[in-house]
Recover the amino acids of this structure.
């Protein structure tokens, strides 16, 4: 790579920060924030330096490896592809297509090449046994969006740059930099909010980094958010504060929601939530009476027993108080590549419960089963049992509940392949690991998080380094495997057209597709030269075509549509190449009713599924809150899920994998600072150092996820030195939100006791 400064988007988390990377003689010499990035405006977090550490990590795999009796052995790409395709095909032939399981991990969504190649890969595998990190994450948001707005990834995004009140429930953007709200520099944006006279309110079982910079903070008992939110809905109706604003005509079944909320008065839910009735009323009033306000919920309200209802009610609260589609409230974005619209055009709005998993009968969502049932499907004999497994950019042994059971399941497979550049807790079970190029060796466009950002922007980054000829990108690996699998299925030969298609796809790669999508999108260069001339023809076409005709869909999306006339035009890959800091496409803007994808064009405030699940919530209300310690997770700004602990610069210092516990609970259990505690539940137990702090609610304990690098056979020596323990070795995989299928990662009951090393125990 040339010497000089390269501008790029950091792909590590959802924040999409612009980075400026200085390179000299093929080496990175510094990584800074890019002041000219229109979204992040110079912000980066400490993890940005890990871009260099990941790139230079000598333990990052560069060539395929195969497990042998005498350890891991490098192999050539062709040989590896051949072996993997043959094994997968063999399994499919012997046991049927569902005998192959596939798990897709989080980094896939930060990788436009993977995203483009995943579909053909999954089609070639042909199995219904698909899983992903989604069911340990944002699944409730997807179901809610599907039910209310008609599309699984049409999320209302807080307009944080213009709001006067931000109510943040179950999220910690100071550490996470936002999720389903791409918000780099949360701290800076909060400062601006304050400067406008605005306010931040946080509701969380822990006084988080975000809570510490808030104007108002309330502890809440884990898992009780649905009750809090229902009581807020109750208050709105009781005090005649409902005013749906501009979404008014679109909102359907407001009265059903009123009826549903009747028995959930602030008094009724107070004991369960741990929040005073008057505080609940005030929260509802604040939201209703602040014209520019946004209520936002995330992981803490999503991955819990009532994640579905809680997420639905949060969306409802924004609608009932007129915040949806209003500047300063929550709005749908208008990205340069609109995967929502593209998905809808091809009938991919999402679906739920079309089939059910074999062992536990859990519903699929968008073709995936809950990750919590992965081990069941591998371990339970019978037709459709998973015998071969593929992981792509995932570490489910550490990221899914009951990781030990998953360890056992993966170990017993006939064959496993991982597309990953680390030998870690999951991939150590693989027979073959296919390592892709590192992020700086490929181009980058954030297809997904551009759609969830607090401002519309577009940015393309060139690769920084040439990976060399003997390497493969993720998309190349997935397409190559897909092609070979298809060929094997057709007994070694594809029809000539199909063969040419595969070759063309493999030759082109994702960037030309990106170019096409950019050009034909609402800001596309395609719109420019023909505007004016083509408009009447386009309008005529729109009038003539049936409502659901694909051509109409295409025209709707494209820059030729009159609807997008006000948008800046001219985007293409080459125009983005000329603007390495990225292009600002403006703030979030109202887009209703056009943006809805429901059949009747309305917003469904009271979907049947959610109403049906209220019986469960009533049941909770009618039983006194249980005793016992409730376990929740947490995130830290220097860590990212399970895979950045091999960077010495990030993990150095005091262990962050501790058990946070309130002084009252600690003293009751005889725990002192410096002690280790055993945290135990049905799935298993872990031992972690205790951190006694008033920042956590009494009766709640917290352990971060993504740790536990002491499992034998993983190849990350720095991570192993800073092993920590995995919270998912304690969390049960039988606890899910039965409505949605999301894993309960927050609010499971655990036992905690003092742990002494065996030697001391003997003496005692
Ligand atoms: N208890 C508990 N569990 C949780 C959570 C929690 O809050 N609490 N959070 C959940 C959430 S939100 C998520 S998203 C999941 C994440 O869960 P996963 O996606 O399963 O795990 P990650 O830790 O993100 O692991 C990513 C893997 O991808 C590899 N990788 C990184 N970049 C690339 C790449 O470009 N290509 C390829 N092929 N591989 C790559 C890394 O080496 C690593 O092995 O964890 C979930 N698990
Ligand atoms: N530094 C860093 N950044 C990240 C990640 C990371 O691992 N590290 N991961 C990325 C990923 S994959 C994701 S999905 C996002 C997640 O982004 P966030 O959702 O902002 O992240 P969390 O820190 O998990 O926040 C969840 C909050 O919910 C609280 N909580 C737990 N249980 C409950 C409950 O029952 N009710 C309420 N009200 N609150 C509860 C927790 O205390 C915590 O503060 O972050 C992304 N960014
Ligand atoms: S917040 Fe940190 S990790 Fe996330 S994109 Fe920005 S620099 Fe990268
Ligand atoms: Mo996530």
């Amino acid at each position: 790579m040339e010497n000089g400064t390269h501008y790029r988007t950091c792909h590590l988390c959802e924040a999409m920060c612009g980075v400026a990377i200085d390179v000299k003689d093929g080496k990175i010499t510094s990584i800074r924030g890019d002041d000219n990035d229109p979204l992040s405006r110079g912000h980066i977090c400490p993890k940005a330096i890990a871009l260099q550490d990941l790139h230079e990590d000598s333990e990052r795999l560069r060539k395929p490896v195969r497990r042998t009796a005498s350890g891991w052995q490098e192999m050539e790409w062709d040989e590896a592809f051949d072996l993997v395709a043959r094994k997968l095909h063999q399994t499919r032939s012997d046991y049927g297509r569902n005998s192959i399981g596939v798990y897709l991990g989080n980094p896939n969504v930060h990788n436009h090449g993977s995203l483009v190649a995943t579909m053909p890969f999954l089609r070639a595998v042909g199995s219904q046994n698909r899983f992903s990190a989604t069911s340990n994450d944002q699944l409730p948001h997807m179901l809610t969006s599907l039910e209310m707005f008609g599309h699984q990834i049409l999320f209302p995004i807080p307009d944080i740059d213009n709001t006067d009140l931000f109510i943040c429930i179950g999220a910690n953007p100071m550490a996470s930099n936002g999720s389903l709200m791409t918000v780099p520099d949360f701290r800076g944006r909060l400062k601006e909010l304050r400067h406008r006279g605005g306010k931040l309110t946080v509701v969380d079982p822990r006084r988080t980094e975000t809570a510490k910079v808030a104007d108002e903070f309330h502890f809440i008992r884990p898992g009780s958010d649905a009750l809090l939110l229902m009581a807020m809905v109750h208050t709105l109706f009781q005090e005649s504060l409902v005013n749906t604003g501009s979404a008014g005509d679109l909102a359907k079944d407001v009265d059903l929601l009123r009826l549903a909320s009747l028995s959930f008065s602030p008094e009724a839910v107070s004991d369960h939530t741990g929040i005073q009735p008057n505080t609940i009323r005030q929260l509802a009033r604040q939201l209703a009476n602040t014209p520019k306000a946004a209520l936002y919920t995330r992981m803490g309200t999503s991955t819990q027993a009532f994640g579905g209802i809680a997420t639905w009610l949060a969306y409802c609260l924004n609608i009932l108080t007129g915040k949806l589609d209003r500047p300063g409230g929550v709005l749908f974005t208008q990205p340069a590549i609109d995967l929502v619209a593209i998905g809808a055009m091809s009938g991919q709005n999402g679906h739920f419960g079309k089939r059910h998993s074999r062992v536990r009968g859990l519903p699929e969502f968008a073709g995936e089963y809950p990750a919590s049932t992965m081990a069941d499907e591998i371990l339970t004999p019978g037709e459709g049992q998973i015998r071969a497994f593929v992981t792509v950019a995932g570490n489910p042994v550490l990221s899914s509940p009951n990781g030990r059971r998953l360890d056992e399941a993966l170990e017993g497979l006939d064959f496993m392949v991982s597309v990953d550049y680390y030998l870690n807790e999951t991939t150590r079970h693989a027979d073959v690991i296919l390592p892709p190029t590192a992020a700086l060796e490929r181009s980058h466009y954030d297809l997904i998080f551009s759609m969830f950002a607090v401002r519309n922007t577009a940015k393309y980054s060139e690769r920084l380094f040439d990976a060399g000829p003997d390497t493969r990108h993720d998309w190349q690996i997935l397409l190559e495997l897909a092609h070979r699998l298809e060929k094997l299925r057709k007994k070694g030969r594809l029809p000539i057209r199909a063969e040419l298609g595969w070759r063309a796809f493999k030759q082109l790669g994702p960037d030309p597709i990106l170019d096409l999508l950019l050009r034909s999108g609402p800001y596309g260069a395609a719109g420019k030269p023909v505007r004016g001339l083509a408009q009447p023809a386009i309008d005529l076409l729109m009038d003539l075509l049936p409502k659901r005709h694909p051509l109409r869909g295409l025209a709707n999306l494209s820059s030729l549509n009159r609807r997008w006339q006000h948008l800046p035009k001219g985007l293409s890959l080459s125009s983005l190449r000329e603007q390495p800091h990225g292009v600002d496409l403006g703030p979030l803007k109202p887009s209703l009713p056009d943006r809805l994808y429901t059949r009747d064009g309305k917003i469904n405030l009271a979907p049947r599924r959610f109403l049906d699940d209220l019986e469960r919530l009533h049941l909770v209300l009618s039983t006194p809150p249980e005793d016992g310690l409730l376990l929740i997770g947490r995130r830290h700004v220097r860590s990212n899920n399970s895979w950045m602990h091999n960077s010495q610069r990030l993990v150095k210092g005091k262990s962050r994998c501790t058990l946070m516990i309130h002084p009252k609970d600690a003293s009751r259990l005889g725990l002192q600072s410096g002690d280790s505690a055993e945290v135990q539940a049905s799935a298993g137990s872990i031992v972690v150092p205790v951190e006694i702090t008033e920042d956590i609610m009494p009766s709640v304990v917290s352990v971060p996820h993504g740790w536990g690098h002491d499992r034998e056979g993983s190849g990350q020596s720095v991570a192993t030195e800073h092993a920590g323990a995995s919270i998912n070795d304690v969390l049960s995989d039988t606890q899910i939100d039965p409505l949605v299928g999301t894993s309960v990662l927050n609010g499971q009951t655990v036992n905690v006791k003092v742990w002494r090393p065996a030697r001391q125990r003997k003496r005692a």
In short: The pocket of molybdenum atom (ligand 4) is lined by residues 106, 133, 137 (CB under 6 Å). The CA atoms of residues 64 and 77 lie 6 Å apart.
